[in-house]
Amino acid sequence: MPTKSAKWRVLFDLNVILDVLLRRESFFTDAARMWALAETGKIEGFVAAHSFTTLFYLYRHQGDSQSAYQAIRSMLRVFDVAGVDRMVIEKACDLGWHDFEDAVQSMAGRGSTCDYLVTRNPEDYQERNLTVILPADFLAVWASDEFGDI
Questions:
Q1: DSSP labels for 83-101?
Q2: What interhelical angle do 28-39 and 65-78 show, nearest 10?
Q3: Are the C-beta atoms of 117 and 132 separated by less than 8 Å?
């Protein structure tokens, strides 16, 4: 856990971002609270670079490129981009995980010195290079700290 004086750096998995953008009913509230922490600058929010292309693909597959661009612009107003470069890809390969995308995600977070990776699928992250946590659990940790209300 970061020190009290440091702003927490949090990598958002695309599933948490999509929970907000698509207003997925059972997940929306926690995901929206997480997004709000990043939007208000209470935490430093990051999204891995490859998540933007995946998001665009998903929207375009539904025939809605315009909404994809709007979603990406909304994300860029709130989140920093966790880079995915050769080193990240090589380190992800070295992990040898079954799900390569999760390995890239983990290494992108580590490369951006994130403290947490917030996802709805923490069990997918076999080796923990950073703290992998559910949105509700992160919010509980956040609330227990003395940073204030969310």
A1: P--HHHHHHHHHHT-S-HH
A2: 50
A3: yes
Contacts of 23 (CB under 8 A, 6+ apart): none
Per-residue pLDDT tens for 37-89? 999 999 999 999 999 999 999 988 887 889 899 999 999 999 999 999 999 99
pLDDT in tens, 102-140: 999 999 999 999 999 999 999 888 766 789 999 999 999
- Which domains does the chain carry? 9-144 (3.40.50.1010)
Q: How big is the CA angle at 137 (ends 91 and 15), to the nearest 5 degrees?
A: 55
Max CA pair span of the chain: 45
Strand partners, 11: 46, 117
Q: What is the DSSP letter of 124?
A: G
